[in-house]
C-alpha cells in the first residue's frame, strides 16, 4: 500500500470499530430499560474478547495461507512473522481492519437473544462461535472454495450478515420465547438511542464498505456512493410501506430500513454502480419490512429483528449481485449479473455460497447453544428475567427511575 491507501484503511478500520458501540446504542434503545446495560455489555464484550482471539489464532485460520480451500493454518498465529519493515505495515493494517469485522459479527447476534440469555453463556459463546463458525465461513468466502468458484461478497453480506442472521435464528430456537411474548408489547424504551445508533452505524458503514477496497481508489469511491444511496432508499421504502399499511411514518421504521439497506448493499458495494444501489435499497426495504413480521407467525422470538434485517437483508443483497454485478464498470474479471449480460451463472454461485453458509452456520450454532445449555445453561431464571438483567447480571442500573422508563 502507498501512504494514501494505508491512511484510508487505517481510518476505515477505526470507522468499523465505531460501529460496534453504534450497534450497542441501536439495540440498547430498542430493548427494555431494565436490560439496556446488559445489551451494551454484550456488544462491548465482543470488543474485549474478539481482538485477542483474532490476533492469537483467528486471523491465521481465516486467511493464512490465503489459497487454502477450507481453512487456513497457523503460519500467522500469535502474529508470527507479521512486521512493518517489508510492507510498511500493509499486512498489519489489513489484519486490524478484518479484526473489526470479526468483532461486530457475533455482536449482531446479541439483538436476537436480548432479555433472557445468561451473560456467562454469552461470554463463552462469542469466542467459540467466532472460531467454529465465523472463521471457517470467512475463509470459504474470501480465498476458500466458495470464493474460488466465483461467488461475490465485497464486504460481508454472506460472511457476516447472513452468517450472523441465521446463527441468531438457531440461538433463539434454543433459548425459547421471552416471558409474555408475543402477547405483551415490547416497544423501544428510548428512540433517541435508536436514532443515535443508526447514525453511528451509517457513518461507520462507509468504512465498512468503502474500506473493503483496501485502498483510496475508484472502487472505494463507488462503494461509498452505493452505501449512501442504498441506505436512504431502503429507509424510504420501509417508511412508505408503514405509512400505507399502518398510517404512520415511524422513526423506528426509518431507522430499521436504513440498517436493512446498509446490510443489503454490503455484499455488492464494489460490484454495482449507477442506479443499482437505489434499486437494491428500495427492494430490500420492502422485503425486510414484511420479513420482520414473520417471527410472530412462525413462533420464533427474535427480540430485535436480527433475522428479519440481517439474515433477510444480507441474503437479498447477496442474491441481487446476480442481477446487478457490472464488471465492465469496475474493469474487473468477476462474473457479470443477469442484467449486464452474464446469464444465470453468478446467480447460481450466490445461491450456493449462501446455501452453504446458512446450513453450516445454523447447524454449528445450534450445537454450540445446545452444549452450553447442557453445561452452564443459557437462559436466566424467570424471576431474573422479570426483574431485568442489568441488576442481576451486572449489578448496575441504567436509570435512577426504571419504572418511568420501562417498556410496556
pLDDT averaged over residues? 96
- Which secondary-structure class do the elements indicate? mainly alpha
Number of helices: 17
CATH superfamily: Ammonium transporter AmtB like domains
Order of helices and strands: HHHHHHHHHHHHHHHHH
Which stretches of 5+ consecutive residues score pLDDT under 50?
Answer: 403-408
| Rg, alpha carbons | 20 Å
Q: What is the 3D form?
A: globular
What do you see in this structure?
By secondary structure, the chain is mostly helical. The chain has a single domain (3-400), classed as Ammonium transporter AmtB like domains (Ammonium transporter fold). It has 17 helices and no strands. It has helices spanning 3-30, 36-63, 90-109, 119-141, 145-149, 157-175, 191-210, 218-246, 251-265, 276-291, 294-298, 306-324, 327-330, 345-375, 382-387, 389-394, 402-405. The chain is globular. Residues 403-408 have low confidence and may be disordered.
Write the topology of this structure.
Layout: H1 3-30, H2 36-63, H3 90-109, H4 119-141, H5 145-149, H6 157-175, H7 191-210, H8 218-246, H9 251-265, H10 276-291, H11 294-298, H12 306-324, H13 327-330, H14 345-375, H15 382-387, H16 389-394, H17 402-405
Amino acid at each position: 500500500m502507498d501512504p494514501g491507501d494505508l491512511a484510508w484503511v487505517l481510518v476505515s478500520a477505526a470507522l468499523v470499530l465505531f460501529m460496534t458501540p453504534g450497534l450497542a446504542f441501536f439495540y440498547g434503545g430498542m430493548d427494555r430499560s431494565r436490560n439496556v446495560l446488559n445489551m451494551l455489555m454484550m456488544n462491548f464484550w465482543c470488543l474485549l474478547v474478539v481482538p485477542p482471539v483474532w490476533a492469537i489464532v483467528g486471523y491465521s485460520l481465516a486467511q493464512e495461507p490465503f489459497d487454502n480451500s477450507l481453512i487456513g493454518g497457523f503460519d500467522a498465529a500469535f502474529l508470527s512473522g507479521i512486521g512493518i519493515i517489508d510492507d510498511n505495515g500493509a499486512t498489519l493494517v489489513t489484519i486490524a481492519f478484518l479484526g473489526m469485522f470479526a468483532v461486530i459479527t457475533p455482536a449482531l447476534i446479541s439483538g436476537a437473544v436480548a432479555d433472557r440469555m445468561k451473560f456467562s453463556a454469552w461470554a463463552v459463546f462469542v469466542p467459540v462461535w467466532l472460531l467454529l463458525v465465523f472463521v471457517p465461513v470467512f475463509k470459504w468466502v474470501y480465498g476458500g472454495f466458495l470464493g474460488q468458484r466465483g461467488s461475490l461478497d465485497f464486504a460481508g453480506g454472506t460472511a457476516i450478515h447472513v452468517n450472523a442472521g441465521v446463527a441468531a435464528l438457531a440461538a433463539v430456537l434454543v433459548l425459547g420465547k421471552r416471558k409474555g411474548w408475543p402477547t405483551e408489547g415490547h416497544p423501544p424504551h428510548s428512540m433517541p438511542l435508536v436514532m443515535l445508533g443508526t447514525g453511528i452505524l451509517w457513518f461507520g458503514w462507509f468504512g465498512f464498505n468503502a474500506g473493503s477496497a483496501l485502498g483510496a481508489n475508484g472502487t472505494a469511491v463507488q462503494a461509498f456512493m452505493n452505501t449512501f444511496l442504498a441506505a436512504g432508499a431502503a429507509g424510504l421504502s420501509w417508511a412508505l410501506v408503514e405509512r400505507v399499511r399502518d398510517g404512520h411514518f415511524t422513526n423506528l421504521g426509518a431507522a430499521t430500513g436504513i440498517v436493512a439497506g446498509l446490510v443489503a448493499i454490503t455484499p455488492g458495494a464494489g460490484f454495482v454502480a449507477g442506479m443499482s444501489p437505489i434499486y437494491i435499497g428500495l427492494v430490500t426495504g420492502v422485503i425486510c419490512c414484511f420479513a420482520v413480521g414473520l417471527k410472530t407467525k412462525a413462533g420464533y422470538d427474535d427480540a430485535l429483528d436480527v433475522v428479519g434485517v440481517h439474515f433477510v437483508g444480507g441474503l437479498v443483497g447477496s442474491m441481487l449481485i446476480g442481477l446487478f454485478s457490472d464488471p465492465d464498470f469496475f474493469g474487473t474479471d468477476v462474473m457479470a449479473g443477469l442484467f449486464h449480460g452474464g446469464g444465470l451463472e453468478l446467480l447460481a454461485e450466490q445461491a450456493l455460497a449462501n446455501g452453504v453458509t446458512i446450513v453450516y452456520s445454523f447447524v454449528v450454532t445450534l450445537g454450540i447453544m445446545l452444549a452450553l445449555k447442557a453445561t452452564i445453561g443459557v437462559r436466566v431464571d424467570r424471576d431474573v428475567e422479570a426483574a431485568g438483567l442489568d441488576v442481576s447480571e451486572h449489578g448496575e442500573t441504567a436509570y435512577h427511575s426504571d419504572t418511568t422508563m420501562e417498556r410496556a
